[in-house]
Amino acid sequence: MKHKRSNWLLRVYVVVFLVYMLLPLVVMGGAALNDSRFPSVLPWMGLTDRWFVDLWNDGRMWVAFRNTVLVALAVVTLSVPIGTAGAILINTLGGTIRSGLYGIMVAPILTPGAVTGISTLLFWNKYSVPAGLHLAVLGQVSFISALVMLLVLARLQTFDHALEEAALDLGASHGQVVRRILLPHLYPAMWAGAAIAFFQSTENFNTTLFTRGTSDTLTVYVFSKVRSGITPTINAFALILIGTTIVCTALYEISRRRAERRAAAESDAAASPVGETAGP
């Protein structure tokens, strides 16, 4: 009886949690399709696509989108090598030096974005470097690279250092050990770090706001639209992003399951001759 009650409470909790998470997205999507000047679902004024048309014709939004993608790609390009190198360095150290360096490299994550943005702007202003997207990249890299470092550092905990010693004993150079043994082991964490760096960059607002100069990114663009009077075009844009995310997630899951089935089939095919030989 108690077990059934626990299952019932768990199901209720899951339903409430999903409603809490998904209902705002449903309302937002409905506002993008409602023929009303204001982003709302009630009262329902009729189905329309006018907000998607206005979004398509919004040149400033497309410029902000391009800037956001360029900044995010630059952040990934810098954050992944820096974070990976930092993780490898910390993993080779020990004692107080390791703890101190780890604290220094993790500190930017705990720093408020506004502080990071203002500090980046003031620092580079001393060297007569004007504000712009390049400073937005540097400001974001200062803390996003630490996130990459944490992912790679966690992956390093499962690395067998005996492989390095064996490769060195067999005559491999340190560069070959890194390229052929260490980095292949770290690739999953590096790819995950690249994905996190990209999305962290696209959603960053505080740091970008102080370092962007006169350029727009999507977060700054949405902020300016909210200040000047938000319209359902923002809801239309959010609906497109959500739809794209769902499609990409579904494609990834389909690809992953196909890869698992293919690996299972290859494993069965490789094991079947052994079973036939052992049978007689």
TrEMBL record:
Keyword Transport appears in the UniProt entry: yes
UniProtKB keywords: Cell membrane, Membrane, Transmembrane, Transmembrane helix, Transport
Domain ABC transmembrane type-1: 65-252
Record flagged with keyword Transport: yes
TM region positions: 12-33, 69-90, 102-124, 136-156, 177-199, 234-252
Membrane topology: Multi-pass membrane protein
Domain of life: Bacteria
Localisation: Cell membrane
Record family assignment: Belongs to the binding-protein-dependent transport system permease family. CysTW subfamily.
Name this protein carries in UniProt: ABC transporter permease
Organism listed in the record: Mesorhizobium album
